[in-house]
Amino acid sequence: MSDQAHTEPTAHDPLDTEEASPFPRRTIRTFVMRAGRTTEGQERALKNLGPRFVLPYQTQLLDTDSVFGRTAPVVLEIGFGMGDATAKIAQTLPEVDFIGCEVHEPGVGALLKQIGDHGITNLRIIQHDAVEVLDHMIAPASLAGVHIFFPDPWHKKRHHKRRLIQAPLVAHLASRLAPGGYLHCATDWEPYAQQILEVLSNEASLVNTAPDYAEKPAYRPLTKFENRGIRLGHGVWDLVFRKR
Ligand SMILES: C[S@@+](CC[C@H](N)C(=O)[O-])C[C@H]1O[C@@H](n2cnc3c(N)ncnc32)[C@H](O)[C@@H]1O
Questions:
Q1: Is 32 in the pocket of ligand 1 (CB under 6 A)?
Q2: Which residue in 171, 202, 183 sits closest to 143, CA to CA?
Q3: Tens digit of pLDDT for each residue in 65-113?
């Protein structure tokens, strides 16, 4: 995914209005609600499969055993976009249960469509801000892993505060990992890769599995953006840290 693949807010988009508002939000969000058309297929998937596979946001801990009807390792993904990698990974690792958080409705519809097309059962979606999901729904030391693939790089310096990977969130994520659980991030924006490496390295409860950047783990498929980026000579950096 090249940085051009991400449309980022410009000077007069809602972000700036929000910042200028006399009623600032409680927290700085890591996303903006992008406009985007939901296709007919996505609409159908939202209507038919949403009730079974989209979990309502709640301010109580999620009981994953009862959600999935079994006891299995649980991996949380933050910001799955259109869900291509998510669907492939869920099929590659049927013994693991996945919870994907995404705020973009067409993406939720697209992933539901894949769930239907491929008969995926080990995946549920929460259409809500993952930061709040983490605050309320995920029990301490409960996760086998966390995936954060190509988080919005927020290129402009004044937007860096919106980047997902920052020390307080990483500490919170680490507290939700079970001992030995992993945090896997990938980005195609080198300055963000450096920031992620620094923030994760500074989190005392995490250990890097590589000297710095990791080999791409086999379960993470190459996205079409990434393939295009590779053809253009752009880099991608994977980081995999483990909870002590
Ligand atoms: C650049 S896209 C990458 C999507 C996907 N992971 C991929 O590799 O194609 C980042 C996604 O993260 C989502 N996102 C950002 N912050 C989020 C949050 N706090 N909670 C849920 N989704 C979030 C955005 O809506 C966006 O779809």
A1: no
A2: 183
A3: 999 999 999 999 999 999 999 999 999 999 999 999 999 999 999 999 9
Q: Is the CB of 83 under 6 A from ligand 1?
A: no
**Residue 78: beta bridge partners?**
101
User: Is the overall model pTM greater than 0.85, yes or no?
Assistant: yes
188 assigned to active site: no
- Give yes or no for a contact between 110 and 123, defined as CB atoms under 8 angstroms apart: no
- Per-residue pLDDT of 15-61, as tens digits, reads 544 444 555 445 799 999 888 899 999 999 999 999 999 999 999 99
Question: Which ligand 1 atom is nearest residue 107's CA?
Answer: 27
Report the distance separating Cα 59 and Cα 54, nearest Å: 16
Q: How far is the CA of 149 from the centre of ligand 1 (A)?
A: 8
Helix (H, G, I), strand (E, B) or coil at 130: helix
C-beta separation of 73 from 146 below 8 A: no
Element (H, E) at 77: strand 74-78
Supply φ then ψ for residue 217, to 5 degrees. Answer: -60, 145
